[in-house]
Structures are given as structure tokens and as C-alpha cells.
TrEMBL record:
Native organism: Exiguobacterium antarcticum
EC number of the protein: 1.6.5.2
Listed PROSITE patterns: FLAVODOXIN_LIKE
PANTHER family: FLAVODOXIN-RELATED PROTEIN WRBA-RELATED, FLAVOPROTEIN-LIKE PROTEIN YCP4-RELATED
Name of protein: NAD(P)H:quinone oxidoreductase
First and last residue of the signal peptide: none
Xref: NCBIfam families: flav_wrbA, PRK03767.1
Pfam families hit by this protein: FMN_red (PF03358)
GO molecular function terms noted in the UniProt entry: NAD(P)H dehydrogenase (quinone) activity
Domain Flavodoxin-like: 6-192
Keywords from the UniProt entry: Oxidoreductase
Gene3D superfamilies, per database record: 3.40.50.360
Superkingdom assignment: Bacteria
Similarity annotation: Belongs to the WrbA family.
Length: 200
């Protein structure tokens, strides 16, 4: 698996999806992949960020994290996305990033990328599954290969048993409710494994 290039791309306002992405990065590296962690550019106004202390704290703490670009997608063999749900869909910041990929798509450079997705929300049924599936809808247009975790390891059940991608509930204080780290690591390892098979 050492020849696989994995991009772990996330959007996070208060830190949950940054943590999921960090676990995925670590697991990808442990599986032998070359991994780059990148954040989606923040487009919310400064006053909106400042109105939420957790959002401001996370923004300040991750100021030096690489920002995702279409060039990163071109570089990668495999991509793991981690984004929170917004009304059962992806955040506007993430959609804006997807909208910059038309050039790569038009050149066929996103075909056969191996992709997987994760999400979070404040309620157990707050739209996480719909958000993961919304990410995959765009991936089908790319011609990418979706590497969902399915039910391929018992650790998925401790995380809530989502076969589409790891999802987590976050309480009002920003704490994860379910124990999802093992599921995230399994999903990342599986993504790298599938990418290694595709890449040959």
C-alpha cells in the first residue's frame, strides 16, 4: 500500500471533523500510504466565527493547516472527506470547494479516484447519513469509486453501525457521544487497501 497517495480533506467549524480527519490521516499512514491532511477554506464572515467561542478557538488552532485545492485532488489516488451536516446536506464551504473541481472533471482527472466520506451532527438522526450520501452523489459524477465501510468490521457497530461512512453525534459542549475512533481508522485502512488494488 506504500504507493497510495491519500488526501484527507475536511471542513470543521468547532473541531469534530478535524479530529475525525486526523484519525483517518494517522490510520492511512499506518497502512503505508503517503497522506496529506487539508482543510476546506473557511468562507464564513469573521463576525459569525467570533460569535461562537468554539468556532473561533478551532479556527485559530488550525490556521496553519494546508487548504484543499483541486491540485490536491489531482495528486491523490484516494480521498477521504469529513464534513458536518447542514440540514441533511454538505456545508456551503464544502459545496463551494466541489464547484472548483470542474476543470479536473472535464479533463477526466477525477475518474477512478477512490473516495470515502464521514460526517457529524448534534442529533443521532440529524442528517449524517444523508450528508455522506450527498458527498457520494458528487463522486458518482466524477466517475470515482466509492469505498464505503459497509459491515466489514465489528468496530462499526460500536460507532452506530453506519455502512455508508463513519458518523458521530456531538453534544452541546462539542463532545463526541459515540466511540468512533476505531471505525474511522478501519474506514481509512479500507480506503487505502481498495486504492492499492485499483492502482495495481
Amino acid at each position: 500500500m506504500s504507493n497510495v497517495k491519500l488526501a484527507v480533506i475536511y471542513y470543521s467549524s468547532t473541531g469534530t471533523n478535524h479530529q475525525l480527519a486526523t484519525w483517518a490521516k494517522e490510520a492511512g499512514e499506518a497502512a503505508g500510504a503517503e497522506v496529506r491532511l487539508a482543510k476546506i477554506k473557511e468562507t464564513a464572515p469573521a463576525e459569525a466565527i467570533a460569535s461562537n467561542p468554539l468556532w473561533q478557538k478551532h479556527t485559530d488552532a488550525t490556521r496553519d493547516v494546508e487548504e484543499a485545492t483541486p491540485d490536491l485532488l489531482d495528486w491523490a489516488d484516494a480521498i477521504i472527506f469529513s464534513v458536518p451536516t447542514r440540514y441533511g446536506h454538505v456545508p456551503g464551504q464544502f459545496q463551494q470547494f466541489l464547484d472548483t473541481t470542474g476543470g479536473l472533471w472535464g479533463q477526466g482527472k477525477l475518474v477512478n479516484k477512490v473516495v470515502s466520506a464521514m460526517s457529524s451532527a448534534q442529533n443521532p438522526h440529524g442528517g449524517q447519513e444523508a450528508t455522506v450520501l450527498a458527498v457520494y452523489t458528487s463522486m458518482f459524477h466524477w466517475g470515482a469509486i466509492v469505498a464505503a465501510p459497509g459491515y466489514t468490521d465489528p468496530v462499526l457497530f460500536a460507532a452506530g453501525g453506519n455502512p455508508y461512512g463513519t458518523t458521530v453525534t456531538v453534544d452541546q459542549d462539542g463532545n463526541m457521544v459515540e466511540s468512533v475512533e476505531p471505525a474511522v481508522r478501519h474506514q481509512a485502512k479500507r480506503t487505502v487497501d481498495i486504492a492499492s488494488r485499483i492502482k495495481g
